[in-house]
Amino acid sequence: MMTIRQYYLNKLAEECNEVGQRAAKQMQFGPLESQAKGPGATKTGDAELNNKERLRKEVNDLLAVLDVLMDIGELPEISPWELLEAKNEKRHKMAKYLDYAQRLGNVENANRPIGLKIHDHFSIEPEPDATGINEKFLLNASIVAAVVGILSPLLLFVNPQKVLDSIQRIW
Question: How much is the pTM?
């Protein structure tokens, strides 16, 4: 018999696999294809959803499982600042390996789909000037802190990801 902890960790594995499956289908058939129109058409409730919508749905399911794991103490809580740092680090790492894959000729050398985001305006590892202070980093970190401070009471009533997405679009 599984413990509650094992049950939710199993759900995490399941959702990760489902996100991977959806990503593979979107690569194979494109973002706008829906199962209702394909050769194996099904009549399930979400058959009309396209691959992009189905991928978003699976990512949302994964995020819900992560929330439960944080609630039961299996995963440490993640502060908004930690999340921004982690996203920034991951984007830089992906860009480094994308450049490498493009130099090897394994990935097309087209414009990157990664648009201008809030974390592109500052570096988590700032390069200091001669005085040892990176003014651009301090300015942008102050702006981010002010925006988070102003918006944090609103996060009780809205989806934090939507707030961050809105900030990124405005920035």
Answer: 0.61
